[in-house]
């Protein structure tokens, strides 16, 4: 196996025997084979579009299959066997439709014709033989750019899938994914073309995040500032992790009146601020911190635990029976709730467990500072900047992880001077989300914009401020201090770069799949930089 797609990759170069994330060689090979199978399907889809054939089922499948290969989503070989079989059967049926419409179905690329082996062992062998990452390009810089795009497309597919679940789709997103997956079967592109392909991924991702924002706010209302209890209420309990608001809503409906309190974990925290979710009286509080702490925090949760997306880690035997998955996330031998979304097994498990035996007060944290709320007080913010009450804005966000070096972000937030505001999003915030940082003129200094996909909201806030100050986003007193872990962070970074945003600081380490030459291109064009050794150094450079 060779996988280097996330920040915790072995030795900072690549996982070759088993993933640091727990991914086994078998699953790594199956993911490579699925990616290859999706390339074959994409080649046919591209030819189909040329003759007006657009297949919605193929579009949705493509996004789901790519999302399944994202870090910490699916560790179950059987499900990958099914995904690969479906990719090939969709490819063949699409060929028939495209041919009937007068399109081309003669392909030189082997991806468009491969037959999957009948067994998982056979598939694993096929996947391993691909040597997928190395086969992308013989030239290491071009391969690096192709990897950036493959990983970026994984993040993009995740957001496109979440948006589609809430009824928000745009054909241009699927067109880009198919065209790109097809283009990645070829070699001979030059560096500039591939830089363009990667930036285009970021541009399309802005659309995908916009669709998801429309899905979330259109279905559940605009987030409103909401204090969320960090303590617990006596009674039975279910903890919901991942990112999916729709799954949470269905669970809230199915648990109404059953005496079960629902808690959020990780990236689900901002769900408390959506009016159509917060209206449920049994939607109580938030439990725990970021994904990498689940092995420490989950054994202490006396209820059922539902994963709606990444990031799942190997469940310890002590709590494995309490864990359930749904959607694209999966772990072998963990009960999976299928598309019918009947959460009865989760509910029954919660009822069978002890639940919390007493009330515990641990205070609250504030969430719900999406674009609507922040722009609702834009006048106040602008006046405060003009009056020099606000000196600078920092966006400190991104994803958390287990590797050392991430204390930088906690210390950074602690050291930000009192006349500066901090916007945050995604799971990186759990390093400082409960800090009491006070306010400036009644506006809290620490504003939780939401999940990682709410980078869309943060971008809208920045664009609106730039409009008010009649300057570009790069001219605002705003600095982005980002942490990355998996491929959604990769695509968000591509989005920011595609918008021309400069001087982003990235940590805790730079991606293993970026070569020195590609890094030079990014530094020259976007002045992107690694975080400094200490927050004090970066603060000094930024604030002068
Ligand atoms: Fe974190 Fe995991 Fe949300 Fe990622 S929970 S690491 S960037 O999935 O997507 O922020
Ligand atoms: Fe290694 Fe990350 Fe790939 Fe897992 S996802 S195998 S930790 S690089």
Automatic annotation (TrEMBL):
- What is the enzyme's main class? oxidoreductase
Instruction: Tell me any Pfam family this protein matches.
Output: Prismane
Residues that hold [4Fe-4S] cluster according to the record: 3, 6, 15, 21
Q: What GO terms in the biological process aspect are recorded for it?
A: response to hydrogen peroxide
Establish whether keyword Transmembrane is in the entry: no
UniProt keyword Secreted, yes or no: no
| Needed co-factor(s) | hybrid [4Fe-2O-2S] cluster; [4Fe-4S] cluster
**Positions that bind hybrid [4Fe-2O-2S] cluster:** 243, 267, 311, 399, 427, 452, 486, 488
Q: What is its main location?
A: cytoplasm
Name the Gene Ontology molecular function terms of this record.
4 iron, 4 sulfur cluster binding; hydroxylamine reductase activity; metal ion binding; peroxidase activity
Task: List where the protein spans the membrane.
Answer: none
Mind telling me which CDD domains this protein's record contains?
HCP (cd01914)
Q: How is the cofactor bound?
A: Binds 1 hybrid [4Fe-2O-2S] cluster.
Q: Under which EC number(s) is this enzyme classified? A: 1.7.99.1
Gene3D superfamilies attached to this UniProt entry: 1.20.1270.20, 3.40.50.2030
Q: Which reaction does it catalyse?
A: A + NH4(+) + H2O = hydroxylamine + AH2 + H(+)
Under the heading InterPro entries, the entry gives:
HCP/CODH (IPR004137), Hydroxylam_reduct (IPR010048), Prismane-like_a/b-sand (IPR016099), Prismane-like_sf (IPR011254), Prismane_a-bundle (IPR016100)
Task: Quote the function comment for this protein.
Answer: Catalyzes the reduction of hydroxylamine to form NH(3) and H(2)O.
Give the record's family classification: Belongs to the HCP family.
Mind telling me which HAMAP family this protein's record contains? Answer: Hydroxylam_reduct
Q: Which protein is depicted?
A: Hydroxylamine reductase
């Amino acid at each position: 196996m060779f996988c280097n797609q996330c920040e915790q990759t072995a030795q900072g170069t690549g996982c070759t025997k088993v993933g640091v994330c727990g991914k086994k060689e078998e699953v790594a090979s199956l993911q490579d084979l699925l990616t290859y199978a999706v390339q074959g399907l994409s080649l046919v889809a591209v030819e189909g579009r040329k003759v007006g054939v657009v297949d919605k089922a193929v579009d949705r499948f493509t996004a789901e299959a790519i999302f399944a290969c994202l870090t910490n989503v699916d560790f179950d070989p059987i499900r990958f066997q099914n995904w690969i079989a479906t990719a090939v059967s969709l490819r063949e049926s699409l060929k028939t439709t495209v041919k009937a419409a007068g399109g081309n179905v003669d392909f030189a690329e082997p991806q468009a014709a491969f037959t999957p082996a009948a067994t998982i062992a056979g598939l694993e062998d096929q996947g391993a033989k691909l040597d997928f990452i190395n086969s992308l390009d013989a030239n290491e810089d071009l391969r690096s750019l192709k990897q950036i795009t493959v990983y970026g497309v994984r993040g993009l597919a995740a957001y496109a899938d979440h948006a589609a679940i809430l009824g928000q789709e745009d054909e241009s997103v699927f067109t880009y994914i198919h065209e790109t997956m097809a283009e990645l079967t070829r070699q001979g592109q030059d560096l500039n073309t591939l830089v363009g392909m990667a930036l285009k991924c970021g541009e399309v991702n802005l659309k995908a995040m916009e669709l998801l924002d429309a899905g979330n706010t259109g279905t559940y209302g605009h987030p409103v500032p909401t204090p969320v209890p960090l303590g617990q209420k006596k009674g039975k309990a279910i903890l919901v992790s991942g990112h999916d608001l729709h799954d949470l809503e269905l669970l809230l409906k199915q648990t109404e009146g059953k005496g079960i309190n629902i808690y959020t974990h990780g990236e689900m925290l901002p769900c408390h601020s959506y009016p159509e979710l917060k209206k449920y009286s049994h939607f109580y509080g938030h439990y725990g911190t970021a994904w990498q702490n689940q092995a420490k925090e989950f054994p202490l949760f006396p209820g059922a635990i539902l994963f709606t997306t990444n990031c799942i880690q190997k469940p310890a035997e002590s709590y494995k029976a309490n864990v359930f998955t749904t959607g694209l996330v999966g772990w072998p031998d963990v009960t999976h709730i299928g598309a019918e979304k009947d959460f009865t097994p989760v509910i029954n498990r919660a009822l069978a467990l002890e639940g919390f035996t007493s009330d515990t007060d641990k205070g609250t944290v504030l969430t719900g500072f999406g674009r609507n709320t922040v722009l609702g007080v834009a006048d106040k913010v602008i006046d405060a900047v003009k009056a020099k009450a606000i000196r600078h804005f920092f966006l400190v966000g991104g994803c958390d992880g287990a590797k050392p070096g991430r204390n930088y972000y906690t210390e950074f937030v602690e050291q930000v001077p009192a006349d500066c505001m901090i916007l945050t999003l995604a799971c990186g915030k759990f390093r400082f989300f409960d800090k009491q940082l006070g306010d400036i003129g009644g506006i809290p200094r620490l504003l939780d914009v939401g999940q990682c996909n709410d980078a869309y909201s943060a971008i809208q806030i920045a664009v609106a401020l730039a409009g008010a100050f009649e300057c570009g986003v790069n001219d605002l007193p705003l600095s982005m201090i980002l942490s990355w872990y998996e491929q959604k962070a990769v695509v968000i970074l591509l989005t920011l770069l595609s918008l021309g945003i400069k001087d982003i600081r990235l940590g805790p380490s730079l991606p293993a799949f970026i070569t020195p030459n590609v890094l030079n291109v990014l530094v020259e064009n976007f002045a992107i930089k690694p975080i400094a050794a200490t927050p004090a150094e970066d603060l000094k450079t930024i604030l002068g």
